[in-house]
TrEMBL record:
Belongs to the class I-like SAM-binding methyltransferase superfamily. RsmB/NOP family. Residues 1-12 have a biased composition (Basic residues). Residues 63-481 form the SAM-dependent MTase RsmB/NOP-type domain. Residues 227-237, 487-500, 841-852 have a biased composition (Basic and acidic residues). Keywords: Methyltransferase, Nucleus, RNA-binding, S-adenosyl-L-methionine, Transferase, tRNA processing, tRNA-binding. GO terms for biological process: tRNA methylation. Gene3D superfamilies: Vaccinia Virus protein VP39. This is S-adenosyl-L-methionine-dependent methyltransferase. Its main location: nucleus. S-adenosyl-L-methionine binds at residues 181-187, 249, 276, 305. The keyword tRNA processing applies. Residues 1-33, 216-237, 487-627, 827-885 are annotated as: Disordered. The keyword Isomerase does not apply.
Amino acid sequence: MGRGGKFKKNRGGGRGGGRGAANGDRATHRPYQTFPEVAKENEKFERYYNGMLDLPEEEKAEFWPALRRELPNSFRFCGSKGHALAVRKLLQKRYIPEITRITHDGLLVEAPKEVPWYPDSLAWWMTTPKNVVRKFPPFSAFQKFLVSETSVGNISRQEVVSMIPPLLMDLKPGMTVLDLCAAPGSKSAQLLEIVHRGEEARIRQVVRGIAADANGAAKAEEEQEDEAARLEADPSDDGRATGILIANDADYKRSHMLIHQLKRLSSPNMIVTNHDATMYPPIRIPNPEDPTKPKYLKFDRILADVPCSGDGTLRKNVNLWKDWTPGNALGLHLTQVRILVRALQMLKPGGRVVYSTCSMNPMENESVVAAAIDRCGGPEKIEIIDCSGQLPMLKRKPGLKKWQIMDKSGRVWNTWQEVDEYMKSGGEDGGPAVAPSRLVETMFPIQEGSDCYDLPLDRCMRVYAHQQDTGGFFITALHKKAEFKAKPEDVKKEVAKKPETAANGAATSTNGTPEAVEANGAAAPKRGLEEQAEEPEVKKRRVSQDETASPTEDAAAASEPEFAPVPDTAEAEAETKAEGASVDTPMADADAADTPKIEAAATDSRPNQPEKKKKQQGPYEEPFKYLSPENPVIQNVTEFYKISDRFPKDRYMVRNAMGEPAKSIYYTSALVRDILTLNEGRGVKFVHGGVKMFVKQDSPSADVCRWRIQSEGMPILHGYVGEDRVVVLRKKETLKKLLIEMFPKIANGEWARLDEIGERVRDLGLGCCVLRVEPEGDDEFFNETMALPLWKSFHSLNLMLPKEDRSAMLLRIFNDTTPLVNMGIKKDEKKEEGPVAVADAEVKAAESKEEDTVMGEDNAEVKGPAPTEKAPVEGEAVAAETTAA
Ligand SMILES: C[S@@+](CC[C@H](N)C(=O)[O-])C[C@H]1O[C@@H](n2cnc3c(N)ncnc32)[C@H](O)[C@@H]1O
């Protein structure tokens, strides 16, 4: 997209859907418009959609200009609701008043607005283009805020339509949820937030109860409006969330993007896997009724946000104007059906699958839904949910009940019979007909006579660009009424051919259209439709990029090669051999529906499947080994931090084959533990699980616990830590000092500089403790309680936070960009360390988080002391974490 058009005047089109006028915008606002280098036209695309989308003429006149306009900037406040609301308040109170004063060429800039249908006003958008916000100096404070909060995971730059699917899942705390095609992870993040909804309040209630029991005081109940915040919403684990999210992606590299995005939410209830969703393996879980019989996880909710041609993202990916061909979607249909069928198989009866794409093409949307329902037993078993009552403010269109299919050559077909007859009748010049490449029957509307003929496909949701100035999107929610046995895939639709056509390869190759030659290879004999349908369904597949990716992710995704996962039959076979089919086949009644091994044979009709086990994609993953509560390290941390008995001791885990704590100790929920343990060696590719809770470092004396609490584990653990290891901070200025100063001195009376916490710190034993921030007063930007790890050495103190967190907190609470200062080095060496340039040990620790998962984290060397607090100066060891590299 061109930068040159920074502030050029809008040349027509207006803002689609009348959003501006409806919201009472001032007429003085300039609708920004940048000017593309790519011509925003494509004959086939325009012909196909003009002919098919059921839009009245006046809407068509809005639809096309909207697709050619630049997309508004949008973002979502994320994390726990309380925290997200606190960060939102900053936007409203600090930045919007500034933005509304910005003018350019005498015109006022349009301030961000809330997305009307997003709950709790946590999603926002603005029409000012990203490059203007980035470059125009009056936006610089707002831009810093966006960058800083995005870097610490409080803001997700997500396209608004991409926020819809998780909101239609009706997900509740305690549920099991699977996101089958999850990278880069913005929808998974939304799901994970719901898995944890209300948890903070529930735990607070339980922890207060524990304290009240200890003091003999009365238990105070918090009033809770949000049902999820009441203990009854998820009571079985003392208020801790018991639900689980499994986020999966078939692409190894992208599964690591996913980890990066989701790790920021510090959830012990999440696992990341790396599988082809069409063959997602059954996940074993405990079977309390009969522990000798295997039991497999069925999900309450599944999101299938499948790979698609992505033509709804034209406004962002302008190259699609030149790259769009009907072939983009043709190659995806079968994979999309397979993913949706697999999702429905793994769902509990009564559960819900949400299927979504950022494509407008019915062959990726309604036809996929209909084909999957047909394969899964029809409307008796699967119902399309009427979501018209949900998100009432969201403008949408009903799903199509009739559509056409455009083949690679641009020819449009109404029914499968038309294709069939064409093949029977021969080519237009009287010669043999050339089969339209890759067309399969399930792409077309289901014909009369089938149970699925009259499915209420109008219950599917289509969102178009002009309706509320967004990208295009398709969403459908499906309800599983009962178990079913899926029909095998039937892609071998025989098309009657003239005998000479089928046999006479040489003749057809000379008579083929250019498109047919391209499809089949110039020298190769032409093949019938049957064979073409059987060829690997997508050799080259566009992975639709999610509009939510961060700039780096955008870049990575944009440069990525086309992606074509191969159903991993061999893997399933290997697993069968390893475990014995009889053992591993889920419950008798769950039959083929639950077993990708069987399913693989049924669906994968492609020739030349490799016999040998496919080489595992991606590097070796370290195993997940749980520690016994009797492990001396677990006993040591429990004793040192006086961790309450109410905090479970049987969920600590390390990532090395020895199963011994070497560098880091992770914590997971009970269900995550059971899954990681029971599925070890079964070929399930787990690539991430657990929150880093303790990190080993050198300690100043033998009495001091060498395991400090890691910042991401702090929110989970702090409520259970004994008061001996807690320092309470109430004053804003004290926190500011601790954020700006790294390693402030406390020896020789210097503790007194630390104001209200000085004496407490002086008397505190060495090692790690919890800094509990309980703001006093009514400062609107300093009112959130938090818990941060603090390390006390002989001579100094240090907040153990990554640099981004320190800087983001300084900006958020104090609107301050003061560079950090390292107080731990000699006076004449002391220098200011810009918030972005600090290379201290805890920063490295934070950065090493990424490498840990990839490298096998416990193999990393542990060295001390940390490079920044120079040992000769301080004579004490601190923050000894080194990078895993
Ligand atoms: C539309 S993107 C998903 C966006 C994601 N849900 C989000 O909100 O951030 C589709 C994803 O599916 C993945 N994918 C493609 N084929 C797949 C398959 N057969 N199984 C699982 N994932 C697949 C791609 O790697 C890509 O990350």
